[in-house]
């Protein structure tokens, strides 16, 4: 039974997960309202809020799970990547619990935990034990990442590509701010775009080779969303100058067109990578995986020979169940972190994941 802790951004979360598959509790306290006034997450404010919320969220997890600290076998905590001040609060808290409870500490990679989040529901755990599930192509899309990762049956992981500027969630958050739709931008844009005309406004499809020049091979699995965001800025400016922004359906159609540009690129590149590497399973994880349009598009595009694993919405956005779930594999293998465990801000190159179908 692993106690998971997550404080890498603006969600304070604690979870209790048994054997990497049974989520007994997944408590999340969001700070969204606290950061909304700033139009984005303020790291120091996030750290202060985590400090205040952790005890309450931990208690909630125990209450929901109906077990006490004596049942916990290890404490798993996200120690990166993320906002440094926010991460440090969770890591220190985890160390305190580990010492207090006399249990081992396990540092977990947040990005990897997001991928594992797609296997926390239904028979996900069983799927991971089967060779036929692999290779897995994972599209990880959140406020901090837009990446394609290939995972083989022995746990070998290859980072095929990532964004060279803004992450998809970041582009949605910044776009939403520009349109005056608030924070977080992904859900706000999705709501505003409902029923909108996705073709009314033109947005580029960066790094897809459709801009009139051939796509450089090194960018075939990379993303770029800052140009789409700049295109939005220009469209909004032009609309304001000509008063077109006051016309009915402006916000709806421009939101729909903007969201479509992002969903189109993410889905096409994920499917292309899955085909190129003969993936048997395609995973979509991270906060942006909550997006209804992205989920629908992936369902439409997935070839019949491949299995699509969309993370359940509650395991898409930041949560600790994915951390407690991933932590199980390190516990099983006796891989623990020292009490000097440090936090790290940036995503390191991932070469292995701890779950695999065959012995490593
Ligand atoms: O995984 P997450 O909670 O935190 C990070 O690790 O970054 O992802 C947060 C991101 C935000 O950018 C948010 O706008 C986006 O996920 N998001 C969505 C939706 N819900 C959350 N994006 C698109 N559609 C949604 N429904
Ligand atoms: Zn995240």
Architecture overview:
- This protein has 12 helices and 10 strands.
- It is α/β, with parallel strands linked by helices.
- Strands 3-2-1-4-5 form a 5-stranded mixed beta sheet, with helices on both faces.
- A hairpin with a 5-residue loop joins strand 7 and strand 8 (157-162).
- Helix 6 (168-178) crosses helix 7, helix 6 (168-178) runs parallel beside helix 8 (226-241) and helix 7 packs across helix 9 (250-276).
- 5'-O-[(R)-(carboxyoxy)(hydroxy)phosphoryl]adenosine is lined by residues 9, 142-144, 169, 172-173, 184-187, 190, 286-288, 290-291, 317-318.
Would you kindly provide a brief summary of this structure?
The protein is α/β, with parallel strands linked by helices.
Distance between the termini: 23 Å
In one word, what is the shape? globular
- List ligands, each type once: 5'-O-[(R)-(carboxyoxy)(hydroxy)phosphoryl]adenosine, zinc ion
Rounded mean pLDDT is: 96
Major beta sheet summary: 5 strands, mixed
Helix content estimate: 40-55%
Parts with pLDDT < 50 across at least 5 consecutive residues = none
Give a count of the beta strands, DSSP E runs of length 2 or more.
Answer: 10
Number of helices: 12
Strand order of the largest sheet: 3-2-1-4-5
Structural class: alpha/beta
**Whole-angstrom Rg:** 20 Å
